[in-house]
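Lay summary

Proteins are chains of building blocks that fold into shapes. Our project writes down both the chain and a compact code for its shape. Here are two examples, one after the other.
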Amino acid sequence: MAREFSRGRRIADLIQRELAILIQREVKDPRIGMVTINEARVSRDLAFADVYFTVLPEIEASTAEELLNSAGGFLRSQLAKMMTTRTTPKLRFHYDHTTENGARMSRAIADALATDRNIPDEPAT
């Protein structure tokens, strides 16, 4: 039961919430566009935070990842002002492919169901 509310998980949730606000309001680079922070994972020693994000299709994911990683120092300094921890984790941004994978799997299931509907039923012998 104690593991459900660990310190690392609470810090990761705080980082996720605050980064979503900071990217929306403070990052002035128009190339970043609409970024959604899906998840943040903090290392056991709280030295690193892996932040997973998605963007609207207007921008390439690799470009957004480079831009966010280059803005990581600024975002980390802004987070440090909000957090009460002794150190602030170093931010590492990663594009989250789960939405693309989910859409691909849904299409595959829909195609398989359509194929099954087109196969005529064989009479029982």
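And here is the second example, written the same way.
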Amino acid sequence: MTEDMVLALGSEAIKIVVYLAGPMLLAAMVIGILVSVLQAITQINEATLTFIPKMVAVVLVLVVMAPWMLEMLQQYTIEVLGNAGDLVR
């Protein structure tokens, strides 16, 4: 296994992680900002108020994006396991 193969495998793994986690993190961030603005406008300083909307948003994004996420993960796994013989050498 050469350095180029390790770097390519690592960069592909990082890219997959960003693609899989990105939509959920983005949804949580947007909901968090919206709830924070709402709290600032209404002066409600409840710390637990942001938790439930974020959790609901993340679950909704996960339900909607799950087939795409599973497909990406499956393709990456097939690629890595398919090239396992070349990677071991």
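What can we say about the second shape? Residues 3-88 form one domain.
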